[in-house]
Design a protein that fits this description.
- By secondary structure, the protein is α/β, with parallel strands linked by helices.
- The protein folds into two domains: 5-216, 2-enoyl-CoA Hydratase, Chain A, domain 1 (Alpha-Beta Complex), CATH 3.90.226; 220-267.
- The protein has helices at residues 49-61, 96-112, 128-134, 161-169, 171-180, 186-192, 204-216, 220-233, 238-251, 257-267; strands at 5-7, 25-30, 33-38, 70-75, 81-83, 117-121, 124-126, 138-142, 146-148, 183-185, 197-199.
- It has a seven-stranded mixed β-sheet, with helices on both faces. It has a four-stranded mixed β-sheet with strand order 5-7-9-10.
- A hairpin with a 2-residue loop joins strand 2 and strand 3 (33-38).
- Helix 1 (49-61) runs parallel beside helix 2, helix 4 packs across helix 5 and helix 8 (220-233) runs antiparallel to helix 9.
- The longest helix has 17 residues, at 96-112.
- The chain starts with a strand and ends in a 10-residue tail after the last helix.
Length: 277
Amino acid sequence: MDPQTTLDPTIDASTAPARLAYENIVVAVSGPVARLTLNRPATANSLTIRLMQELVQAIESLHEAREVRVILLEAAKDSKAFCAGIALSDAAPDRAFQMVETFHGIFRAMLEISKPVVTVVNGAAVGAGCELALFGDLVIASEKAVFAQPEVRAGLFPPIAAIILPHLIGPKRALQMILTGERITAQQALGLGLVNRVVPEAELEKTVQAFIAQIAEQSAPVLAMAKKVIFQSMGLPLEEAMKKSADIYLNQLMGLEDSQEGLRAILERRKPVWKNK
């Protein structure tokens, strides 16, 4: 299959990302869901600089896709791994600066995009692939998924994991993952709070569809504000975080037509009809 950008013909061109020719990923937009698929199965979806640039480009292209409510990041179905990390060809010291800058660009794009990002892991997520998987706002894994940050064995450390893992699982467990490079199973990751759900591989797609459907039926700007509050409040003192949340709630959320519609729908005992504004 030739990698390409695939757009559902029913999507309004004004709400869909630009038609771009991707070499290493597939982008498919269908209704409220945009799927970004890592499509280098022969290399276990190892991250080249070019692939990472394409991911950044694809995520940023979805900023103006008004009807898209959720982004799904996954590996091609015939992949043996979610992602095996940085490709050796782009891990050399003379390419380190460009590689790190491009890699960090993915995470900046994921933070800045207002839409929730759900990562689906069916296989190994190793090194940079583990960082990419766990940086999703929500993570769904099959029972055969494994996660590892083995960079220390190559005389390196994982730059993103060193920042996000202490927030996700605490410094002691983060240090254990990073300093030992040990692999953890999907069930262990669930117990640590690294993933949201673990299911048998045969049930993965059904579970993903049900999961994203719950998100996709909500108001897009409300989803965006909820994500904004969570990420902008993390790390702030409690009082400051509460003020930021109240400010967004009162001065932004309450001004939405969808918020008013949601309240009316509750009073009228009906399902809300979102205008996404």
